[in-house]
Amino acid sequence: MDIPKGKEFKDLYYYQDESEPFRYYILSPQPTPEVTPAGRPTLNLMVLGTNGILQLGSRWAPSAQSIEELRHHLVSKTGASSVTISNLEVGNIRAELLLYTNNIATVLSQSNTSNISPYTALFHVSLKQADLAYVLSALHGQEDVLMVRYHADLTFPLRVAMKLSGSLHDFKDVLIENSVDLAGLDSDALVQWLDYAVKIRILQVESTNYEYDSPELFEQDYKTLLGRSAEWCLQSGVPSIVATEAAQIDIEVESTRQLSGEYAVVSDVSTWLNGFDRSAFIVGSGFSDSRQGEQAEEVDSTRT
pTM to 2 decimals? Predict the structure, then answer.
């Protein structure tokens, strides 16, 4: 399921409610590590000879600090005394720990998450020698190898809009060229001629957000737009309005759909350790550093 990106603010995206201008919805663009009170990722790899045990925690939610900073930003920007910020509606959330080897993803572990934000997931994985080599390469800085992916059923309020515009004087020329009796036009005939004028680009249709909607609903709204445009022409008096040189048509239809579907976000675990001593997350011994280095080079070569 694809949704509009939204406006970016620190570690979140936010969307304005079209019906309530001071209500906003937020969504985190990717999972982040669960951290200790000191801010250190809760990740640990224990190396036991040629095998290993990997433990890590993840979450999928903006930080409380980012939400409050967004609130202050929106109050300052809009001049409102307060704004309402809510999470987009999500459900059935599950998390996976993925290992990419030779560009093929393997699910190392799956985890149910907490039912409320920040949707924490915990992973505990036993690793054999081959997988351990790749995990070590990721913890040493190799990207696109060890990933956390969240899946969720997401409900998104999508505003769609469609507008018909253009010169009615040019539209009149089309009608006259086709020997149409302007005074005798009824609604059904006008709809057909308006559609024809769109197809030959005398009139223009602009649409917003229909790339996230179904083609069937686009066609339904297009028919509604033509019908309303025809009604407007009839109410205004077709012969008189099309005879005016500067006459323009500008009719819009809009609505808010509730999009529902599966949504996924992913994060690279290697990037979680940026700014930290990477070796501090690895304990134990027995796995050859040179073997791990060769494996990291092999992983890198599959990405080029």
Answer: 0.76
DSSP 3-state assignment of 216?
helix
Nearest to 73 by CA among 5, 14, 4, 157: 14
The structure tokens 């920040």 sit at 118
Residue 173, helix vs strand vs coil: helix
**What DSSP line would sit under 227-293, residue for residue?**
HHHHHHHHHH-HHHHHHSTT-EEEEEEEEEEEEEEEEEEEEEHHHHTTTS-GGGGEEEE-S-HHHHH
Residue 70 has pLDDT above 60, yes or no: yes
Query: What's the rounded Cα separation, in Å, for the pair 134 and 291?
Result: 11
Q: To the nearest whole percent, how much of the chain has pLDDT over 70? A: 91
**φ, ψ of residue 175 in degrees (nearest 5):** -65, -45
Quick one: which of 220, 226, 230 has its CA closest to 198?
Answer: 226
Rounded to whole angstroms, the Cα distance separating 303 from 300 reads 5
Q: Kindly report the CA angle at 226 between 224 and 231, in degrees rounded to 5? A: 95
